[in-house]
């Protein structure tokens, strides 16, 4: 049995045990993993030869508690590529330590993946971002990491990666270029932007003063996820691509009356879900080409 006591990060052997549990139950040998953001989990409907593992059936796995996040690990084939998808991710605001939120990335690594695609819903801060835009993440600000909540804190196992990993080149430049060309082919280039994603702890959305602060820090879009997964992925040598769907604008002025709600976030993400799915579907085989 896997012991997942809250006081210690999972050991290499515990992660291996979870990966082996999954590999013993599927013929799929994934090369890519996708973490589906809020409201974007329908992507798995395009996945064939699906094998579904609800999180509660995977020994040692946390369970997802957020509306709009299903809580399933799905193995299958998308556009000819064997992959695994997280339909529903773990957020620090659910009460999980960040290392626990990011642990599934290590499971993916030990299942054999080389590439990770992360998607999320985010609030737009840069004036270049409109509601409904898709922002390619070119860099991130790990606000939780600034305050001592980095997923790599704790004993380091070199089998995953180095004690002090670089995070300068987190988001693969080649894949970012490919996404731009796919978007052009799809005729949606005008809604594709590029920018810096900042993760704050949530679950409260930002105050006006906080949004102004995030803007001054260099944030283009803000959310409550993703960064801990990407840091963990880069630590264990995975190539990463990330994309944010801009579901709302963050208020930069006290005169703005509209307040963001989770329902509004879900509404915009479901209106753009198909488009993002098509984009990811076309992207998947290209990601593996050097
Ligand atoms: N702030 C933080 N997280 C979010 C937002 C936001 O405005 N929109 C979607 N996720």
DSSP, total strands: 9
Q: What fraction of the residues are assigned to beta strands by DSSP?
A: 15-25%
When the domains are counted, the total is 1
Structural category is: alpha/beta
| Widest sheet: strand ordering | 5-8-7-6-9
Uncertain stretches:
1-5
Radius of gyration: 18 Å
Q: What is the mean predicted local confidence, pLDDT?
A: 93
Can you give a write-up of this model?
The chain has one domain: Rossmann fold, CATH 3.40.50.1580. Helix content is 30%, strand content 23%. The protein contains seven helices and nine strands. The protein has helices at 12-23, 98-110, 143-146, 173-186, 208-217, 227-235, 262-287; strands spanning 32-36, 48-54, 72-78, 81-87, 115-124, 134-142, 192-199, 221-223, 239-249. Residues 121-123, 205-206, 222-224, 247-248, 250, 260, 265 line the site of hypoxanthine.
Output the keywords.
290 residues, alpha/beta, Rossmann fold, 5-stranded mixed beta barrel, 7 helices, 9 strands, globular, binds hypoxanthine
């Amino acid at each position: 049995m896997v012991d997942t006591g809250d006081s210690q990060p999972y050991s290499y052997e515990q992660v291996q045990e979870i990966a082996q549990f999954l590999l013993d139950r599927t013929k799929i040998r994934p090369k890519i993993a996708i973490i589906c953001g809020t409201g974007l989990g329908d992507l798995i409907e395009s996945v064939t030869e699906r094998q579904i593992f609800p999180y509660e059936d995977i020994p040692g796995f946390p369970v997802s508690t957020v509306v709009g996040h299903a809580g399933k690990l799905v193995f299958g084939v998308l556009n000819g590529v064997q992959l695994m998808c997280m339909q529903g991710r773990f957020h620090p605001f659910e009460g999980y330590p960040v290392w626990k939120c990011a642990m599934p990335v290590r499971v993916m690594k030990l299942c054999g993946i080389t590439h990770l695609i992360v998607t999320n819903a985010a609030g737009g801060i840069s004036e270049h971002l409109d509601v409904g835009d898709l922002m390619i993440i070119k860099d991130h600000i790990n606000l939780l990491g600034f305050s001592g909540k980095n997923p790599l804190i704790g004993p380091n196992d070199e089998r995953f990666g180095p004690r002090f990993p670089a995070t300068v080149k987190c988001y693969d430049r080649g894949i970012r270029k490919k996404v731009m060309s796919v978007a052009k082919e799809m005729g949606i280039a005008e809604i594709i932007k590029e920018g810096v994603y900042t993760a704050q702890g949530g679950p409260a959305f930002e105050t006006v003063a906080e949004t102004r602060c995030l803007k001054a820090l260099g944030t283009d879009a803000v959310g409550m996820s993703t960064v801990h997964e990407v840091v963990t992925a880069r630590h264990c040598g995975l190539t990463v691509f990330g994309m944010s769907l801009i579901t709302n604008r963050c208020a930069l002025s006290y005169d703005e009356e509209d307040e963001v709600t989770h329902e509004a976030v879900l509404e915009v993400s479901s209106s753009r879900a198909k488009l993002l799915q098509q984009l990811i579907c076309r992207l998947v085989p290209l990601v593996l080409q050097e």
